Amino acid sequence: xxxxxxxxxxxVLKILVIxxxxxxxxxxxxxxxxxxxxxxxxxxxxxxSQKSFSSFFSSAKIHFIGIDLRYYKGLKGLYELFKILKKExxxxxxxxxxxxxxxxxxxxxxxxxxxxxxxxxKGRKDKRALTRKKNKILKPLKTTVERYADVFKAxxxxxxxxxxNICDTSVDIPDKIAAILPDDKSTVCxxxxxxxxxxxxxxxxxxxxxALDYLSMKGFYLFLFGGGNNEKLQLQEWESKFPNCISIAxxxxxxxxxQLISRLDLMLSMDSANMHLASLVDTTVVSVxxxxxxxxxxxxxxxxxxxxxxxxxxxxxxxxxxNKKCYLTDTPYACMREISPSMIxxxxxxxxxxxxx
Length: 357
Prior knowledge:
This protein is α/β, with parallel strands linked by helices. The protein contains 14 helices and eleven strands. The chain folds into two domains: 152 residues, Glycogen Phosphorylase B (Rossmann fold, 3-Layer(aba) Sandwich); 178 residues, Rossmann fold. Strands 8-7-6-9-10-11 form a six-stranded parallel β-sheet, sandwiched between helices. Strands 3-2-1-4-5 form a five-stranded parallel β-sheet, sandwiched between helices. The longest helix has 13 residues.
């Protein structure tokens, strides 16, 4: 054990947490880190990640170290980063990423800096068994949030991840957000995040359009989330086609997106970052799953399994991240294509029916 005895003996313990990407995975550190700083207020907790993710760590109790990874390439670049971080005089490094970059940084800290290091167990063996073609072991694995908490426990710090609303909705709504929200407070507001990093996680856009048509005609306000030129063009097309649809792609900062999401009644998302952003601000998520599976541990933190839309296929899941090409040549991506728009609509209407507006 490192944590308990050291924590009791030292006035201030300095810990660095490393999680460089991707957005959803960085977001999932928040329930653990916020619970940690609440339980151990005398620890100076620093987080190393990409500077664009600073909005996840707005607490004054977390020292966010935002970097641009383009400036720290290769061994030389990472060694320069290590020298900068070493000035923090760290007692402990916790690696929640376990990729080549973080492995190299761990090596420098352990063998040059003499710093104690703990690393996340991603459960790669179990995930391979979950996603292999034959003899799948289809069982729920630990969530990513639980795996993050386990690293702190291995270091001697008992951490119980809790709810983590990183937006203060008690303050006035920023003018930029208020301007796009409906004046009628009883109007149901739904976020729509139809995209993901890989095709195996994206619901067919023509089917998504059917769901949008229905939801917009019900009078719901639909806020369309996305990024990148192609996504923006698609969202602009839907915005012009369907009533009550507003594309926010490229219009808001990450902080502003979080403020908007925190005021939505519901988020419809793929297995993507927006599912995790909504979870960080206590917004209910209806999530749609295809090539990936909730059993791999990437569901939104504290989201209900009842709000998951998926179908059983013997080939599912074929990938942890959805980045593998579908091997069904006759019916590619049937895991997504066989989900009907009515299945998504029914799930959303079920959630909306439980709202207390």
